[in-house]
Write a structure and sequence with these properties.
The protein is built from eleven helices and 13 strands. The protein is an alpha/beta fold. The two termini are about 25 Å apart.
Length: about 280
């Protein structure tokens, strides 16, 4: 499976700091924890050179990163069209750059979702108020039966299970995205794509564990709130959230020596000491 980070959306400012690291580190780490090592970053012409400067080709983390340009007006579905050649005959995980996931069971849950072979699988989280996003209804067997976007005129959430900005798709997704574009006068969004799978009975649901935190950064207030949540999680638990170096090490993409080298590059900072401490018994 391959991965795409959509960093060209209106809410995604991929290089803004979220507490102690750039925003794009969080979705990158999530894909790595799902076992994905080949990743495409879709960003605006202005952000792409800066993302490349920050992330490079991914070699230091044992992964391969590539980049594609897209204007911010293109939308998530356009990003899948842009990435069609990159996807090829593989399945793909698609994540929005302004969505953050963390929790003890995150890696196991993501790897389970990434076992997808056919159709699509959306990651959902039970929330108190699913306003401002799509919600999904599903039966006791986990089969999706309905999908409603509360941003659509006249629509109301049909359940408390909000669709997050992370989904897994088979290799027909690029073709489906292109067909959606040609059939609409306005830009289709990811909910339209998910509905296309649902109408064929090909949409499944992966529910985040109760201990998993999901944050959607849509503006300055939510950015500040997310930074505070990450700070609290790191200080209480003594672990880094959204740390690609640790994700690479835990997934076996790099060994102890590789992690120590990355810790040395980070120097005598909290980040560097944390990485070196993982090898020294802190992990």
């Amino acid at each position: 499976m391959r991965g795409i980070i959509f960093a060209a959306g209106g809410g995604a400012k991929p290089l803004l700091p979220v507490y102690d690291k750039p925003m794009i580190y969080y979705p990158l780490s999530a894909l790595m924890l799902a076992g994905i090592r080949t990743i495409l970053v879709v960003a605006t012409p202005g952000d792409t050179p800066r993302c490349q400067q920050l992330l490079g080709g991914g070699e230091r983390w044992g992964i391969r990163l590539s980049y594609a340009l897209q204007p911010s007006s293109g939308g998530a579905v356009q990003a899948l069209v842009t990435g069609s050649e990159f996807i090829g005959d593989r399945c793909v995980a698609f994540i929005l750059a302004n969505h953050i996931f963390y929790g003890n069971r995150l890696s196991a849950d993501l790897q389970s979702a990434a076992a997808l072979k056919k159709g699509a699988r959306v990651v959902v989280r039970r929330v108190d108020e699913p306003e401002g996003c799509a919600s999904v209804c599903f039966d006791k067997n986990g089969r999706a039966t309905g999908l409603v976007d509360s941003l659509e005129k006249g629509s109301k959430p049909q359940s408390r299970y909000a669709v997050t900005g992370l989904g897994f798709y088979d290799n027909t997704v690029g073709e489906r995205a292109r067909a959606l574009q040609s059939s609409r006068r306005t830009f289709p969004d990811i909910t339209d794509l998910n509905r296309a799978y649902l109408e064929e009975g090909a949409l499944s649901v992966s529910v985040c564990a109760r201990a998993t935190t999901w944050l959607d950064i849509g503006g300055p207030d939510s950015l500040l709130a997310a930074a505070r949540r990450v700070e609290t999680a790191e200080q209480r638990c003594g672990v880094m959230v959204g740390c690609p170096e640790e994700a690479a090490w835990r997934m076996g993409f790099i060994d102890d020596e590789g992690l120590l080298e990355l810790g040395a590059v980070a120097g005598e900072t909290c980040y560097g000491r944390y990485l070196r401490g993982l090898v020294g018994g802190g992990g």
